[in-house]
Amino acid sequence: MNRLSLPTPAQAPAASQPLLAQIQQAFGSTPQMFRTVALSPAALQALWAFFGALGGGTLGAKLGEQIAVAVADRNRCEYCLAAHTALGRKAGASSEELRAAQQGESADPRTAAALRFALQLVEHRGQLSDADLQGLRAAGFTEGETVEILAHVALNLFTNYVNVAFRVPVDFPPVPLSRAA
């Protein structure tokens, strides 16, 4: 059960309503996570802008979704795992690629390096070794792409925490977590 109110778009604060209309148009519905975040117009504005900015980034939607799946699984966020698995499929990732991403793995060496780096960030709270950064360089990532991977992790930490802390009901087809409780 959701720990906070789950306003309909019409019940949300007035400043959140235009953004919820954009979200409705983008998704064809208004996912419950966005409805929860809409309780704070500032948080909703930041979240939607972060999604939009990274959507126009250089990593591409498929890798962005694979990172999101890896981070969601590591943080045991069933909502984000379900949402980003669905979005990952739309971005061209196969079911096998998304299952591998849950484990931080990929048959593609470049994707595997990005996922390892993302999970190092999560597991070590940003405390990276030089070797962690060298792994990305060796895989061909630029410094700008390295920052963008970190931005994807940061965005997903926010959404994972919203969904886990507030127990937002999942409104995407469920996907089993790969990690044991």
UniProtKB/TrEMBL annotation:
Pfam families referenced in this protein's UniProt entry, alphabetically: CMD
Domain Carboxymuconolactone decarboxylase-like: 41-118
Domain of life: Bacteria
Protein name, entry field: Carboxymuconolactone decarboxylase family protein
Lineage of producing organism: Bacteria, Pseudomonadati, Pseudomonadota, Betaproteobacteria, Burkholderiales
